[in-house]
Amino acid sequence: MKVVIVRNKEEMGKRAAAAIAEQMRAKEHFVLGLATGSTPLPLYQELIRLNKARKLDFSTTITFNLDEYVGLPPTHSQSYRRFMNANLFDHININKAATHVPDGMAKDPEAFCEAYECMMDDVGGIDYQVLGIGSNGHIAFNEPGSSLASRTRVVQLTKNTIKDNSRFFKRIQDVPTRAISMGIGTVLDAERIVMLAYGANKADAVAKALEGPITASVPASALQLHDKVTWIIVKDAATKLQLEWGR
Ligand code: PGA
Question: Is 78 helix (H, G, I), strand (E, B) or coil?
Answer without folding.
Answer: coil
